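Worked Example 4.2. Consider the chain below.
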Amino acid sequence: MQLLKDLFRKKTVGGICLVILILFLFVAIFADVIAPTPMVNGSLPIDLTVARMTPFQSLEHPLGTDTMGQDLLSYMIYGARTSAILGLCCTLLSVIISVIIGTFSAVIGGKFDLVVQRFVDAWQCIPSMLILLILMSMLGQGMPQLIFAMSVPSGIAGS
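Applying the procedure from the previous section yields the following structure tokens:
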């Protein structure tokens, strides 16, 4: 408890960011309970009778609806879950790739280490968005493909 008090007293912005991060993760974990409109078969139900509602026009849809009558607040809550999964998985896989490359480079050393250093230097010169687009075009759609495509370039660049 003292650690949290020190955090908020000495690093106020850091403490506020910690609260926001915990709140974001809470929303992501409990999205099924919090969201006003539940997902059905992986998407929000379509209700054209309430299409294009503006924010605060009704209590049922506090942030309004889109052109197909789907609740925007529910979109944001379920999007928090997707963002949290994507962020955590990409970070974990990037760290694993970086540690493996770095460990092999350090243990083997010599010319192998020099080649790895030059490859990483060359890899960092290529824009990461270009690499991401190329990988996604080769791998196709889907969350696992996106996690892989986002993790590999940063994992290689981080080693």
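The helical segments are 2-10, 12-29, 31-34, 72-108, 110-125, 128-139, 143-157. The mean pLDDT is 92. Compare this with Example 4.1 before moving on.
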